[in-house]
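Researcher: Go.
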Amino acid sequence: MTMNTQGRPTDAGSAGTSSTDTFTGNRGLQIEEALLFEVGRHDVTGVDLDEPVAFAPRLGKLARTSAIDLPGLSEPEAMRHYVRLSQKNYAIDSGLYPLGSCTMKHNPRLNEKVARLGGFGDIHPLQPLSTVSGAVELMAELGRWLIEMTGMTSVALSPKAGAHGELCGMMAIKAAIAARGEARDIVLVPESAHGTNPATAALIGFKVVTVPARPDGTVDPAAVKALLSPQVAAIMLTNPNTCGLFERDVVEIAAAIHAAGAYFYCDGANFNAIVGKAKVGELGVDAMHINLHKTFSTPHGGGGPGAGPVVFSERLAAFAPLPFVRIDADGPVLVEDEAALKSGEQPFGRMVAFHGQMGMFVRAVSYMLSHGADGLQQASEDAVLNANYVRAGLRDVMSQPSGDRTCMHEVLFDDHFLDGTGVTTLDFAKAMIDEGYHPMTMYFPLVVHGAMLIEPTESESKASLDLFIATLRHLVMRAKAGDVERFREAPRFAPRRRLDETRAARAPKLKWERPQPLSEAAE
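Model: Structure:
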């Protein structure tokens, strides 16, 4: 079996009967396509290229000794390939994307238009600063908005995404501790945290100590105080947390951390829930990263691009990394090296070669200016409203680990409602694919058994949410009615059926290999 045929509905051994009985394998306009290596010719190309003039290769032992063996395609074949791939992709532009803790919100096309303006889209990081004053001014404006929304003192724009922002904030904390001449080496991390939190702390040499969570997933100040010591450097706390709840004791936790001489790092992945509603600086936070590609609508997914600026309190402002934007008497200035530093500025170094993700900066500012302060606040309010609307629509048929409690921007269910049905969280999620929905976040946070974390964001209309709720209610009813095979066979209508995921993880096929001739295979 070639790699692309695994999981086809017509494969031998697939559960149930085939839902495809056409000669081509196509179903209407859903085209079944072989790999390009299988359909392309390896001896031709769709482009006419002149023979290269004689030259002396400089690759030495690295020079290729065999043909590159790429398939040659005509232009229509290449175009059809990518169009067909796009038709198999699920995106926020095609339907509700309920991934919890990811904020998959609509990206207004105005953002894309602005980002493609010549003065932003065509600039290069190696240009002289004198030729990009407008870009520097936009960076300063972005920083001003972020500082105002969070109530913080300074901002580092250079981190490329959330985990990179976490690294930036924790490196600033480590630099501040070193500047005090202390050797604190412990970071407290709640057990409900994003996995990147303990990974980031460990990466830069801290020891991670887990803070136990209450049954509802929130952090008890008493549990934090019990772990405090002169060795504690910081706590990394997500607020709202990954259970979709606001940490109601955050001010008390911050006060205890500061009294112990430590710092408070806040994971800002869920900032979309509180923009315009709460300023983290007033809650006692010392550093927080902000995912521009979540909260401010820039494209999310596919590995990037992202942007994770970090805002700092007065306690850490001096340690923001290079490069950073300073507002001087003559306007914004991009400070790129230590020679340009002023008294009191103590950057811990630099994390990137240049300034960060300029395209994401432009899109975020476009979103901020088009919404205004009141619009950003309403977006947060609507995100929380939509999540609670989903909660209210499903609470009588799906179980909540925190009880019937108002959530923030995402609602968390567990798998207790499936007890005795023979259906698992994974089965339920696969059945959602057949209904045309990308599954919600599954099995996270880890503190909840069979977790199903749903974040509709503010982008969805009431009609969209009503259909989503009705679909999940229908699936719950079918599971409780004993229709187990429907779930175990799912997805039945996707281009690929369910694979043996354990086998796929342990023995993945990462490279296409030309099939052996039948005579050789028989031998």
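Model: Residues 374-484 form a domain with the Aspartate Aminotransferase, domain 1 fold (CATH 3.90.1150.10).
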